[in-house]
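Human: Can I borrow your eye for a moment on a structure tokenisation matter? Separate attempts, laid side by side, tell us more than any discussion would. Could you pick a protein and write out its sequence and tokenised fold? No explanation is needed for now; the record alone will do.

Assistant:
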Amino acid sequence: MLSFYVTGTDTGIGKTLASCALLYRLRAHGLRAAGMKPVASGCVRIDGVWRNEDALALQAAGESGIDYADINPFALEQPLAPELAARDAGIEVTLAPILDAYARLSAQADALVVEGVGGWAAPLSATLMQADLVRALRLPVVLVVGLRLGCLNHALLSARAIAADGLTLAGWIGSHVDPTMARVEDNIAMLRHRLPAPCWGVLPYAPDAAPQALAAHLDIPASMGG
């Protein structure tokens, strides 16, 4: 099973776009690939049940026939930090339903792309951090770096936090989120030099681009099965 956990240097820096592009890249290699968004806050009612835009995008990019409830076990209405959104919904985010859904997805796919929430240190509940989930799933981490002023600091701090939590940073993906960023290529070069993992690609600034078209910008290392 080729699987990894996608986190980011912050919220709103292209984690879902990168995750969907990874799914299309994996499928281009002939793998049955499925996405997972274990916890998603900010949902709307569709046919009487809560649905999240990011989780729906992962569902569309992955293998067909995957049950939404397995892709997104915790769909929370309010667009807040998961801990607050779950509190408002009167529920608690726990590991067991996520692990059960992951097991069902694993039986239907050769590769899984699990997308986290916000940045690495964003908690899932009062007692559950993303690091706890990644340890339980035994996954390597892919860091999406939002390319804007401050990205060096955010990326290096995120990499240190992942290592301090005892987890493996398998690679990173640059995501152009600020088309006016100065010296962007120099920043990418410094990230390549300083981050302790290979760059899997850089996604251009393309707000309306389909993730399938952006998949060509990514290259999953052969050591990961890509």
About this structure: Strands lie at 2-8, 33-36, 39-41, 43-46, 49-52, 74-76, 111-119, 141-147, 169-176, 199-203. The first helix runs from residue 15 to 28. The domain at 2-38+93-224 is CATH 3.40.50.300 (Rossmann fold). The chain has a mean pLDDT of 95.
